[in-house]
Every structure is written in C-alpha cells, then in structure tokens.
Amino acid sequence: MVWLLDDVYDVQHRAYMMREKDKLEPLKIRYHGVSGPAMPYDERYTPYIKKAGLLPWILLVSRSTPNLNAPLVSALVDRWRPETHSFHLRTGEMTVTLEDVSLITGLAIDWRPLCMSTDSDGWREQMIALIGMTPTEAEDDVEEGEEKKKRERKAAGAAFTWIQNNFATCPPDATDDVIQTHARVYMWYIVSRTLFPDSTGKNAPWMWLKALTVFDSKWSWGSATLAYLY
Known about the structure:
Largest sheet: 3 strands, antiparallel
Distance between the termini: 29 Å
Radius of gyration: 20 Å
Strand order of the largest sheet: 1-2-3
Structural class: mainly alpha
Strand content: 5-15%
Number of helices: 12
Mean pLDDT: 82
Helix content: 40-55%
Number of strands: 5
Number of domains: 1
C-alpha cells in the first residue's frame, strides 16, 4: 500500500481500513447514471439544449458515462479537509476549481448566477403550465398543518420513472411546442441525475425544472455545479 501522508495518520482513515483490515466497504457514490434506453437523446432537442448552455455536458453523458472508482473516491474523501475545503495529499493541497469544472463539463462559469426562489408553493400548477402535466398527488388527505407543508416541499418534483413513462419518446410528428417541452424535460432529467443528484436516486426536484423555464436564461451552470458539490 502506498502511504499518502504518514503511517500514524493513514491508519485512522477509511481507505486504510478497506485495504488492510477488510472491515469497510467503499463509500456509496451519489451518482445516478444518465439517459440509457429509457430516455434516448433526440437530435431535435439540440437547438434548445444549446440555447440553455447545457449541450457539451448532455452530449457527453447521454452517449457514455465514466466508470466511477468507488475505492478511489473513498480514499479522496479521507484526504478532504472541510476546514480548508481542500484535499491534503502527499504532494500538497489541492481543490476543485471553477476552471476544473469548466474543462471537465464544458459548462459556462461566467454567465449569470443561478439564483432563484426555491419556494415550492403551487409547484404542481406551475409544472402543468410548463410541461402540461404533473405527477398524481400522493399525500394523505388526512394530514394537515405544517407537517403536510413540509412533506409537500420535500416531494416537490417527479420520480425519474414518471418522467421516463411520460416523456421518453418525442412523437415523430411533434410540433415545435411539443419538442420544446420534451427537450426541457430531458434536460431536467439529465441535470437531476448527474450535476445535482440527491441521496435517493429516485426523484428530479422541481427547482431544476423551474430553472429551465426560459432556455436562454444564461445561467452559470458550472458555478452552480461546483457550489452544489461543496
């Protein structure tokens, strides 16, 4: 085993326990894949995805996805120091920069900050206005008050399976409005699974669809990705 820092420190880390003691599994990576057969890319989406500034990344992940090395990621987590927001490696300190994000993802880092209200009040009505439908409400009718509001805020969005079932294929004879709707949903699906994944791996949050209300908003998706990473 190659010691990254010093014997005394390394034996306290997860990577050492995984390698030498066989007591721990690699950390689970918060990453949920991309389109696959269920959400094929349609070339008719390209003009709208390009206008939104997401084309380089979506072309990359919709055609192939990297194999993620869970043990390597676990070892890097061992070297991360939240006090300095940097990796403490034997070669020195390193951190993820905006330039790294730009080079790896192809996303803009010099456009407008992705700042908007995350209030989910009336999100179902807004979703219907934006893409024409919304998931069936699953909340218990008996539940009332603050707890129901909290659940509603937490559930604001749609399951990936719901998106696949309703928007997987854009009709061959679709109008321009229908193509735009499918393009918007496709972008929502991809960014929710790759750039901004949550721990469930099941849902696409409403706020990322809301960010795609206007295609040419000139959002700095790269900056938002780095902020979300931290």
